[in-house]
Amino acid sequence: MKFTFSVYAVLFFVTICTRAQVSYGIFGGIQQTDAHVKIPGGPAIPAASGYGFHAGSMLKVGFDKNVYFSPGLLYSLKGVTIHFNNILQDSVTSSKLQIHYIEIPLLLRFDTRANGNGFFFLFGPSASVAITGKESSTYLNNSKKDRPMRFANTAYGRFEMNLVAKAGYYFKNNVLLAGGYSYGLGSIINDDGYARIVPRMITLSVGYFFRKK
Questions:
Q1: Cα distances (angstroms) measured from residue 205 to each of 82, 113, 181
Q2: Could you give the count of Cα atoms lying within 13 Å of 2 in the half-sphere of its Cβ?
């Protein structure tokens, strides 16, 4: 169902872009990922923030005064370390997750000035698909094991939905700087008997718009 949503979302903004004034650009930056981790019916589990980066492209499609549709397509690396401390009785003291995503944000943008220069704000959903990932586990005997993340109905899920809010400044030379917050709308674990891992992320991005058509 999430995959179907992503396909229809892409078709939707492609249709809009063919009928409206469009500007486009590229952006990239760094991000800090945290997570709310909890055992169903049990205690919360501490997690340590991890760092990653993102890079991609974006559109700015005007459909009202100072209001725009701003979809994007980007690569995103997210990481977090979960301190299980053998809570699951499997000898695992911590697990470091590093996940590579393709992300499609579908955001509404409001510019404080009609010409685009000045502050702007973005808000909306974002759909992500995990390409691959690595899980590095540490055990009670201090041994370590790295393995590829397994994506299945009883393991990690490939699809992730987030709610995104951003604020930034658009300079006259077509350069922009933005900071954002992303909140996961569900667990990245499909197994209901395992810990629920809901990601949260802070981003800092710089971008550049090329032209209008």
A1: 26, 21, 11
A2: 16
Percent of the chain with pLDDT over 70: 88
Q: Which long-range contacts (CB under 8 A, 24 or more apart) does 9-14 make?
A: 9/71, 9/104, 9/106, 9/127, 10/104, 13/59, 13/61, 13/69, 13/71, 13/106
pLDDT digit string (tens) for 45-62?
999 999 999 999 999 888
Residue 16, H or E segment:
helix 2-17
Q: Within 10 Å of residue 191's Cβ, how many Cβ atoms?
A: 14
**Cα distance between residue 205 and residue 213, in whole Å:** 24
**Predicted local distance difference test score (pLDDT) of residue 10:** 52
Tokens of 176: 């922009």
